[in-house]
Amino acid sequence: MKPSIRFVFAGYVLLELWATLEVAAWLGGGRTFLLLVLGGAAGIAVLRREKLALFAQLRRAVAGQEISVLQLPDRALRTAAGLLLIIPGFVSDTGALLLLIPQSRRWLIRQFSTKFSPGAGGSTIIEGDFRRVDDPVLPYTKSGV
Predict the structure, then answer these.
(1) Collapsing DSSP states into helix, strand and coil, what is residue 45?
(2) Domain spans of the chain?
């Protein structure tokens, strides 16, 4: 693992530990533990629901109906939310809750699609056909234009 990734991971673990200790100081140890267990159970429920939705989509595909590719980023973000809920800690749970809000998922999908779309480099592509014409009657300049 690269050193920068180690530092980011160590910082994340320290942030999760600090947030958990702050919540425990505010609510108490038992309630904090209960919230962490409920978060993990919610993550399992989200993943189970996504698995069932995926199986339903595969069944529709086998039956000959269309597969909606546009739902894949939304489904991937909901799956990521389920995984974040399973990770113990309140920082990951906060990120998961943000991913479970439909408006924030749509915003993220819009941001990524504009950033990673083929025309995102700022250049304009105009499609068309061309034909080279070598006509001696046309004027020729030294610049070749």
Answers:
(1) helix
(2) 36-116
| pLDDT over 80 at 119, yes or no | no
Residues contacting 99, CB < 8 A, separation 6+: 77, 78, 80, 81, 84, 105, 108
pLDDT at 63: 76
Q: What is this structure's pTM?
A: 0.67
Alpha helices in the chain (DSSP H): 3-27, 29-62, 71-86, 90-100, 102-116
Q: What is the pLDDT of residues 126-142, one digit of tens each?
A: 777 777 777 667 666 66
* Angle formed at CA 37 by CA 95 and CA 15, multiple of 5 degrees: 45
In 10 A of CB 77, how many CB atoms? 20
Environment class of 16 (CB within 10 Å of its CB; exposed 0-12, middle 13-18, buried 19+): middle
Ramachandran region of residue 126, left (φ > 0), alpha (ψ -120 to 50) or beta?
beta
The Cα angle at residue 83 between residues 97 and 75, in degrees rounded to 5: 75
N residues, the chain: 145
Question: DSSP letters of 87-118?
Answer: SSSHHHHHHHHHHHSHHHHHHHHHHHHHHHST
